[in-house]
Amino acid sequence: MFGFRKNGERVSPPDLIIQDELHLISGPLGSMVGHYETLITTLCINPNTGKGPKVIASTATISRAKEQAHALYNCGIENIFQFPPQCIDAGESFFAYVENDSTKKPGRVYVGIHASGLPSHATAQVRVISALLQSVKMVSVKDEKERDAYWTIVNYFNSLRELGHAATLVSADIPEYMRAMWNRKNIAKENRRFINKLIELTSRADSSEIPKYLQELELKYLGSNDYKPVDICLATNMISVGLDISRLGIMTVIGQPKTTSEYIQATSRVGRSSEGPGLVFVIYNTSKPRDRSLYEQFYTYHSKIYSYVEPTTVTPFATPVRERALHALIVGLVRYLGNEDNLKSPSPVPSDDLQKMISEIILERVKNIDSTELDNTKNLIYKRFQEWINYSPVVYGNPMGQNMNMPLMYPSSLVGNQDLQKKAWATPTSMRNVDVECEARVIDFYPDEEDKN
Fold it and tell me: What keywords would UniProt list here (predicted)?
């Protein structure tokens, strides 16, 4: 892939990299990606020309894109070109223009709900969702198929904890409130709405189940009982990207998301078809000052929402990132830039010349991206090589952490082996969760005052 053949011969490495969803590579994840990108960029440098690949990235809802791209790819801010460029008239570019006639292609309508008179935020959720579910059956339509866009309600939550609480509401409180609604409004049996199918699109769902859930969301409401489409979809920020189902037209957002970019990405999952213009109901939490403030500025906020998109932050050589991933970067460079012995085994240790070469590669990148971290990075590189020399490992290790005899690295998820943790390097094996986890140990012995003395 990188131009290395099995016999050691070099051929041309990739000269073009296409990066999708650049706006997601920010924060802790972006910092880790930018750190490992040092290795990718080094391997992609053409040995004949000394030049790296061209990077084309697609992005949305992003601010300070040039700074982010430079922190990730070390390409230099002056070498970054954003396209399509703005034309003379606002709202137009070479590829697209803004359709001002809403009757041709209607967009989304946002509705803010701040139910300060209700006992709790949960009560507001129950009443709003119940009303939305039932109202689809009450609207007069010429063709039953017209109900399809608003049949499946997507409920968006900011955390799994909030979603778990809502799952209880869907199974108990909402059906109970709907029955009370039927009695209060004398709704005929044939017009009553029932919750027959509920799915959950979150990181808790098994990866093998996700395609099945997406297929179920594609099922349309045709007015018959042959099959029943999804009634409610509970989701977190997992749906912010990759969920392109045109039939979805209605969403409830439970509490304002943490960032404006997440809010835009999430709510753009509905109303993607002109057949079903989007309806977004934001149920604000009355106990949160931020939600109350956004409700008070609701029209102003949504009229220029893209101007509120937060700048992305990427710090690939900050202290937490270095501590977690610098050793993995060093090992990767040693195995690719060293000889065949370095590729197969961590023993013998890298030569002084190889250590110097790797240090220069990393420090040159640090100097270009964040020069304030240059000295600290230099010291940690030296420390890691000394630990390697003093430890004399037998194998590099494996991602599963099994059958390892004196490994240089072990999976950071592996716990319990104290001797291994003192000598080998804990290494992340997945980018799905880059945050550090806390390890708890049960203490069986509690010394009394005499033991302390």
Answer: ATP-binding, Helicase, Hydrolase, Nucleotide-binding
With CA atoms as reference, report the closest residue to 44 among 20, 67, 69, 10.
Answer: 10
Say how many C-beta atoms besides its own lie within 10 A of residue 413's C-beta: 15
Question: How many Cβ atoms are within 10 Å of 160's Cβ, its own excluded?
Answer: 14
Backbone angles phi, psi at 2, to 5 degrees: -95, 15
Domains along the chain with CATH numbers: 1-98 (no CATH), 108-285 (3.40.50.300)
Count of CB atoms situated within 10 Å of the CB of 299: 9
Q: How far apart are CA 227 and CA 70, in angstroms?
A: 51
* CA angle, 436 then 44 then 373, to 5°: 45
**CA angle 33-351-359, nearest 5°?**
35
Q: How many residues are given for the chain?
A: 453
Q: Cα-flanking dihedrals φ and ψ of residue 93, to 5°?
A: -140, 180
Please list, residue by residue across 82-116, b when 16 or more beta carbons sit within 10 angstroms of its beta carbon and e when fewer do: eeeeeeeeeeeeeeeeeeeeeeeeeebebebbbbe
Dump pLDDT digits (tens) for 54-98: 999 988 777 888 899 999 999 989 998 887 776 777 777 777 777
User: What's the pTM value of the predicted model, to 2 decimals?
Assistant: 0.78
- Pairing type for strands 409-411 and 425-427 reads parallel
- Angle of the 352-369 helix axis to the 374-391 helix axis, nearest 10: 150
- Tell which residue, 137, 108, 162, has the closest CA to residue 280: 108
Residue owning tokens 């997440």: 262
